[in-house]
Design goal:
By secondary structure, the protein is an alpha/beta fold. The protein has helices at 29-46, 71-82, 99-106, 125-135, and strands spanning 4-6, 12-14, 21-25, 49-57, 89-96, 112-116, 139-143. It has one domain (4-143): Rossmann fold. A five-stranded parallel beta sheet has the order 5-4-3-6-7, sandwiched between helices. A two-stranded antiparallel ribbon has the order 1-2. The protein is globular, with a radius of gyration of 14 Å.
Length: 144
Amino acid sequence: MVIQRQSAFNCPVKLAQPALAVTVLYTAVRPTLGALRRAASLARDLGASIRILNVRAVPYPLPLENPPTDREVLARNIRTLADGQAITTHIEICYGRDIVDSLLESLSPNSIVLIGVRRSWWPSRELRWAKKLTQCGHHVIVVG
Protein backbone atom coordinates (compact mmCIF):
# COMPACT_ATOMS: atom_id res chain seq x y z
CA MET A 1 0.00 0.00 0.00
CA VAL A 2 1.33 3.43 -0.92
CA ILE A 3 0.49 6.37 1.33
CA GLN A 4 1.05 9.86 -0.03
CA ARG A 5 1.42 13.21 1.70
CA GLN A 6 2.18 16.68 0.44
CA SER A 7 5.69 18.14 0.76
CA ALA A 8 6.73 21.78 0.92
CA PHE A 9 6.74 21.91 -2.87
CA ASN A 10 3.27 20.35 -3.17
CA CYS A 11 4.74 17.08 -4.45
CA PRO A 12 3.39 13.74 -3.31
CA VAL A 13 5.99 11.97 -1.20
CA LYS A 14 5.77 8.21 -0.91
CA LEU A 15 6.19 6.88 2.58
CA ALA A 16 6.49 3.25 1.49
CA GLN A 17 8.57 2.85 -1.65
CA PRO A 18 9.75 -0.27 -3.44
CA ALA A 19 13.38 -1.25 -3.01
CA LEU A 20 14.33 0.31 -6.34
CA ALA A 21 12.45 2.55 -8.77
CA VAL A 22 13.49 3.85 -12.17
CA THR A 23 12.16 7.40 -12.57
CA VAL A 24 11.06 8.66 -15.98
CA LEU A 25 10.74 12.42 -16.15
CA TYR A 26 7.70 13.41 -18.23
CA THR A 27 8.72 16.06 -20.78
CA ALA A 28 6.49 15.57 -23.83
CA VAL A 29 4.64 12.59 -25.29
CA ARG A 30 7.12 11.33 -27.89
CA PRO A 31 10.34 11.78 -25.86
CA THR A 32 8.70 10.30 -22.77
CA LEU A 33 7.61 7.22 -24.75
CA GLY A 34 11.22 6.63 -25.77
CA ALA A 35 12.41 7.04 -22.20
CA LEU A 36 9.62 4.77 -20.95
CA ARG A 37 10.66 1.99 -23.35
CA ARG A 38 14.26 2.22 -22.16
CA ALA A 39 13.11 2.36 -18.52
CA ALA A 40 11.00 -0.78 -18.98
CA SER A 41 13.99 -2.84 -20.09
CA LEU A 42 16.18 -1.33 -17.37
CA ALA A 43 13.57 -1.92 -14.65
CA ARG A 44 13.03 -5.49 -15.85
CA ASP A 45 16.77 -6.20 -15.59
CA LEU A 46 17.04 -4.57 -12.15
CA GLY A 47 13.78 -5.95 -10.74
CA ALA A 48 12.55 -2.40 -10.14
CA SER A 49 9.33 -0.50 -10.68
CA ILE A 50 8.83 2.54 -12.92
CA ARG A 51 7.89 5.95 -11.61
CA ILE A 52 6.69 8.57 -14.10
CA LEU A 53 7.28 12.02 -12.62
CA ASN A 54 5.63 15.11 -14.08
CA VAL A 55 6.80 18.37 -12.51
CA ARG A 56 4.77 21.49 -13.25
CA ALA A 57 5.73 25.08 -12.50
CA VAL A 58 3.02 27.22 -10.91
CA PRO A 59 3.35 30.98 -11.50
CA TYR A 60 3.69 33.16 -8.41
CA PRO A 61 0.30 34.88 -8.71
CA LEU A 62 -1.40 31.49 -8.24
CA PRO A 63 -1.37 29.51 -4.99
CA LEU A 64 0.30 26.08 -5.03
CA GLU A 65 -2.92 24.53 -3.73
CA ASN A 66 -4.83 25.72 -6.82
CA PRO A 67 -2.59 25.10 -9.89
CA PRO A 68 -3.72 26.08 -13.40
CA THR A 69 -3.99 22.44 -14.54
CA ASP A 70 -6.14 19.62 -13.21
CA ARG A 71 -4.13 16.79 -11.62
CA GLU A 72 -6.68 14.14 -12.68
CA VAL A 73 -6.60 15.18 -16.35
CA LEU A 74 -2.79 15.13 -16.36
CA ALA A 75 -2.72 11.72 -14.67
CA ARG A 76 -5.21 10.32 -17.18
CA ASN A 77 -3.09 11.58 -20.10
CA ILE A 78 0.10 10.13 -18.63
CA ARG A 79 -1.65 6.86 -17.77
CA THR A 80 -2.31 6.29 -21.48
CA LEU A 81 1.46 6.26 -22.01
CA ALA A 82 1.97 3.69 -19.28
CA ASP A 83 -0.82 1.33 -20.42
CA GLY A 84 0.42 -2.05 -21.49
CA GLN A 85 3.50 -2.02 -19.25
CA ALA A 86 4.24 -5.38 -17.68
CA ILE A 87 6.15 -3.59 -14.92
CA THR A 88 4.52 -1.82 -11.97
CA THR A 89 4.25 1.85 -12.89
CA HIS A 90 3.43 4.77 -10.57
CA ILE A 91 2.50 8.26 -11.76
CA GLU A 92 3.35 11.31 -9.68
CA ILE A 93 2.50 14.91 -10.53
CA CYS A 94 4.26 17.65 -8.58
CA TYR A 95 3.61 21.38 -8.54
CA GLY A 96 6.23 23.89 -7.47
CA ARG A 97 7.56 27.36 -8.15
CA ASP A 98 10.79 26.08 -9.70
CA ILE A 99 10.98 22.85 -11.68
CA VAL A 100 14.55 21.95 -10.72
CA ASP A 101 13.93 22.55 -7.01
CA SER A 102 10.76 20.46 -7.19
CA LEU A 103 12.65 17.69 -9.00
CA LEU A 104 15.36 17.63 -6.37
CA GLU A 105 12.75 17.61 -3.60
CA SER A 106 10.84 14.66 -5.08
CA LEU A 107 13.83 12.39 -5.86
CA SER A 108 15.50 10.18 -3.30
CA PRO A 109 19.31 10.27 -3.12
CA ASN A 110 21.16 8.57 -5.99
CA SER A 111 17.99 8.05 -8.05
CA ILE A 112 18.05 6.55 -11.53
CA VAL A 113 16.38 9.12 -13.79
CA LEU A 114 15.61 8.81 -17.49
CA ILE A 115 14.87 11.99 -19.45
CA GLY A 116 13.53 11.89 -22.99
CA VAL A 117 14.75 14.77 -25.14
CA ARG A 118 14.19 16.03 -28.65
CA ARG A 119 17.45 16.32 -30.51
CA SER A 120 18.39 19.83 -31.57
CA TRP A 121 21.45 21.96 -32.10
CA TRP A 122 20.80 24.03 -28.99
CA PRO A 123 20.93 22.77 -25.42
CA SER A 124 17.38 22.14 -24.23
CA ARG A 125 15.91 22.69 -20.79
CA GLU A 126 15.83 18.91 -20.36
CA LEU A 127 19.61 18.73 -20.89
CA ARG A 128 20.07 21.50 -18.31
CA TRP A 129 17.91 19.50 -15.89
CA ALA A 130 20.02 16.40 -16.59
CA LYS A 131 23.22 18.32 -15.88
CA LYS A 132 21.86 19.71 -12.58
CA LEU A 133 20.56 16.30 -11.46
CA THR A 134 23.94 14.72 -12.26
CA GLN A 135 25.71 17.43 -10.25
CA CYS A 136 23.43 16.59 -7.32
CA GLY A 137 24.45 12.92 -7.38
CA HIS A 138 21.64 11.30 -9.39
CA HIS A 139 22.24 8.79 -12.17
CA VAL A 140 20.76 10.37 -15.30
CA ILE A 141 20.23 8.68 -18.67
CA VAL A 142 19.29 10.97 -21.54
CA VAL A 143 17.18 9.21 -24.18
CA GLY A 144 16.63 10.72 -27.58
